[in-house]
Amino acid sequence: MALVTINGQTLEVPDGTNVVEAAASAGVDIPHYCYHPGLPIDGNCRMCLVEVEGARGPQIACNTILRTTRNKEGEEVPAAVVKTETDAVRQMRQGVMEFLLLNHPIDCPVCDQAGECGLQDYYMEHGKHDHRSVVPKVEKLKAQPIGPNVILDQERCILCSRCVRFTREVTRTHELVIAGRGDKSRIEVFPGTQLDNDYATNVVDLCPVGALTSRDFRFKKRVWFLKTASSICTGCSRGCNVHLDHDGGKAYRYRPRANPDVNRWWMCDRGRFTYKAIHEGRQREAAIGGQQVPFAKATQELRQLLGTGKVGFVVGAQASLEDMAVVKWLAASIGGRAWGLDWTEPGKEDDFLMKADLTPNRRGFSMIGLETDETSFREALPALSALVTVSVTLPAGIAHARTAALVTHAAAIPDGAAVVLPVAMHAERHAAYANVDGIVQHVEPAFEPAGDALPASALLALQAAGMGHSLPFDRDGVWKRLDAELGVTA
Amino acid sequence: MTKVLTAHVDHPDSHRLTHYRSVGGYEAARKAWTSMTPADIIAEVRASGLRGRGGAGFPTGMKWGFIPTNSPKPKYLVINADESEPGTFKDRLLIERNPHAVLEGVVIGARAIGAKRAYIYIRGEFATQTKVLEEALREAEEAGFVGPNLFGTGEGVEIVIHRGAGAYICGEETALINSLEGRRGYPRLKPPFPATNGAWDCPTCVNNVETIATIPWIVNHGGAAYSQIGVFEAGDDGKPPKVDSRGTRLMCLSGHVARPGVYEVPLGISFRELIEEYGGGVWKGRKLKAIIPGGSSTPVITADEAMGAVLTYEDCARLKTMFGSGGLMVIDDQTCMVSLLTVLLRFYAHESCGQCSPCREGTDWLYQILVRIRDGKGRPEDLQTIRDLCTNMEGRTVCPLAAAATMPTISYLTKFLPEFEAKVSAAQAVGVH
Fold first, then answer.
1. Between A and B, how many CB-CB pairs are < 8 A?
2. What are the tens digits of pLDDT across the range A154-174?
3. Chain A interface with B: residues with Cβ < 8 Å
């Protein structure tokens, strides 16, 4: 551990911590653009200049690395005595802001970054200077698509090089470069290439200004209208942590949420755009025999099926841990059997985040203790009195005449399903998923479920209650029982 | 007077191995490799008092001593031949006329720091000089003075000549290393320093051409002999020396001087002697107005200041300027200092690599303001803006390029303020806003 004194307060930080992070842990914000904990230190923006006692002139906090320091007597002393709130530091920050905004077009009214822009934020906090140049601004390329998902505006760029370092050090695909010199410097794609890799859109999140914007998101919504829910990406078994940005019951985008154990600061583009599935192709109403019916009528039909004696349940790996648990308990209550099976086609896998298993919760099957042997399911199928599917798409060749399907999407409804009930997705409820490494991750609801949908766990627990079986139907109840029965804790 | 570097450069064959051998060439290398340990060599260079001739004036022996001897990594000696500071053309002369002294210095330096490979990073525009150096290297390799087995020791050094691509910033040692590695020529953050993490993250020593070309003489004659040249005054009670400007320097005289050129002079002679005796005085019978002592990035000094000063690091420091690269530019009394500063700033705006915000934006902004003042469109507030920009640039960037633009700017504004003010008030008088 190393000691550091920041604005008179001495604290202990792990060896190798830089002053930006050390200050943050003490609640002191040191403004910065180019520094990002997931990228190599570059030190080009000069926004994080601070005063360090004994140093030759101002130092950049990002490259001031703290290590255990001892005096001659062998006593540990602060590795650095840092001041971040002096007049000199304020003046330096204002000076840097003036330079960064000198050639910036200040086209905020038509810029999609407005509202979440590092230049706007820091100008208000550290700049507030009047523009005093009468020289025309340097003109560069604007609104240039540089790949399937990203648009570049060179004029807005402050050349912090986060995007370049991302493609160099994280994806190692090297599509982005800085070309030119001095104030003619600009970000470009390497000649003959496009920014087209599986993680390309991370550069949009990394970009502190409006230089790199998402072709999917831009001009869809002013960001100050957006609310944010802590969620996870359900696009594969990695379970990357995301911010789900939404407004008016509509999801607009995922942005990666840092989690050192799962996805660090990143997510793949394949997963990033799965937010669209929250709205596209959803089953919003209940149906019987293919005809839309009132929800209560369908649940009545479901209860009837559940009372037929030898009921089989199949729950898919899109279902949450809560859904799986309630399915298991319900099957046990009514003398049925419950399988956890999922036939989702595998997708691309890489050595970074992307997993071939495109479901978020396959680990949940074993965690909850569902049967996972497909052969036993196929053998048992003909003798079942009814089949209840939960968030799963049955493969061709598996069917039962009396099937109740609890689905999020219309495409998952089996042919000839007797009764269909809409259930909520992860964005619409409290839920938890076990990722490929067995890490249990909770999501918080962003908005109300689509149409008549309910969380499958609650829907089934309510039917159980109607049949005289008491099952937990809310999050706390489910997790209390999971903890007690299986030692699975939130 | 002792000439360390230029004793033979006027001979028509001075660049050929045969001539270099005829004046004792490569005997220092033989001595260094066969009868001296690396520590001996470093001790001699320390004793010589030689300071780096690239501009910063860092003691060469001490720099060599920073290269770790216990590192398992390969070590590299890199010669900075990217001579690009306006007003500086001494390394060009050495490469053209005395290339074997450079190569011999490399061979000795490589032994001193344990480098098996050395690079000479030569300025891209030096096309002719590259050919001369390549030819010299070929001769030296054929004669066995450069290569894997030197003087029967079974050890040696390989020398690689690498051409730059025309960027001033690649004369900054870490940008040079990046460029050498095939990366963009951006200066690196320090720490870590090249001595431990240089080329390919290995211990690397970067020396200037003139510095390394001095080494053979020091090995031949001993560090003590070299330290007798120039001026030295010990400090009191173990304190650093009061004056430490030993040896000779190649001074590049240019500008409004009768006989421009490269002159090897012992340190400690007066500016007056250099300009009047060596350079033949200010041209066209005009008066001296000012000089730029060490390349365009060093602060300007007035004629009065210059005429009372001697060529030492210390006198330059006293005058709040720097000895720099030895590029001394003479400025006559008919020179418009506003125009001169504008030209200099154009260079730094063009050569800023663009890495750090203050330099990237500030150098061009400074230039644009100066253009406006020069063209009679200055505004009263411009002079304060210039000062503010200089404050916001200097010392706030990865490398000293920003300071290379701001230090002269402040010095011109301080010492020749009336010229700037006159330009601005003339503009105001005719109603420019």
1. 94
2. 999 999 999 999 999 999 999
3. 41-47, 49, 57-58, 60, 63, 92, 95-96, 98-100, 102-103, 132-135, 138, 158-159, 177-178, 180-185
Residue B264: the pLDDT is 97
- Chain A nearest CA to B361, separation (Å): 6
Locate B421 and state its tokens. Answer: 């003010």
| Facing residue for B363 by CB, picked from A100, A159, A182 | A182
Considering only CA atoms, which of A262, A298, A256 is closest in space to residue A421?
A: A298
| Å between A97 CA and nearest CA of chain B | 9
Length of chain A in residues, anyone?
A: 490
In order of A30, A42, B398, the CA distances from A102 in angstroms are: 22, 21, 20
Q: Which two tokens stand for residue B343?
A: 């030209």
Q: pLDDT of B404-423, one tens digit each?
A: 999 999 999 999 999 999 99
Does the beta-carbon distance from B167 to A181 stay under 8 Å? yes
Query: How much is the pLDDT for B432?
Result: 64
- What separation in angstroms does the CA of A475 have from each of A322, A435, A457, B290? 7, 19, 9, 82
- DSSP line for B326-393: SEEEEEETT--HHHHHHHHHHHHHHH--S-SHHHHHHHHHHHHHHHHHHTT---TTHHHHHHHHHHHH
Q: Name the DSSP class of A103.
A: S
Mutation choice for A interface testing from B169, B347, B361, B364 by most A CBs within 10 A? B361
Q: Determine the residue of chain A that is closest to B190 in CA distance.
A: A63
* Chain B residues touching chain A at CB-CB below 8 Å: 167, 184, 189, 349-358, 360-365, 368-369, 372, 379, 381, 385, 388, 391-392, 395-398
Distance CA B284, CA A457 (A): 98
Q: What is the pLDDT of residue A69?
A: 93
Nearest chain B CA: its distance from A100 CA (Å): 6
**Helices B127-142/B99-113 angle, 10° precision:** 60
CA distance A367 to A468: 27
CB atoms within 10 A of CB B87: 23
E strands within A46-148? 49-52, 59-60, 69-70, 76-77, 81-83, 144-145
Q: Which residues of A fall within a CB distance of 8 Å from B356? A: 43-46
- Tokens (6 digits) for B337: 């200092």
Q: Which residue(s) pair with A231 in the sheet? A: A242
Instruction: Determine the Cα–Cα distance for residues A54 and A81; give it in Å rounded to an integer.
Output: 8
Question: Which among A57, A133, A181 has CB closest to B365?
Answer: A133
For residues B156 and B115, the answer to whether their CB atoms sit within 8 Å is no
* DSSP per residue, A31-55: --SS--TTS-----S-TTEEEETTS
* pLDDT value for A135: 86
Which residues from chain B sit within 8 angstroms of residue A158, using beta carbons?
Answer: 357
**ipTM score over 0.95, yes or no:** no
Query: Which chain A residues have a beta carbon less than 8 Å from that of B350?
Result: 181-182
Nearest to B360 among A57, A133, A182 (CB): A182
Tokens 């809310």 correspond to what residue? A474
Q: What is the pLDDT of residues A170-225, one digit of tens each?
A: 999 999 999 999 999 999 999 999 999 999 999 999 999 999 999 999 999 999 99
Sequence-ordered strand ranges (E) for B272-336: 288-292, 301-302, 327-332
Separation of alpha carbons B176 and B353, rounded Å? 12
Residue whose structure tokens are 């216990």: B70
Residue where the block lists tokens 């030898």:
A310
User: How would you write B230-254 as a 3-class SS string?
Assistant: EEEECCHHHCCCCEEEECEEEEEEE
pLDDT under 70: residue ranges of chain B: 432-433
- Residue A183: which of B354, B369, B392 has the nearest Cβ? B354
Handedness of CA B298, B300, B305, B309 (dihedral sign): positive
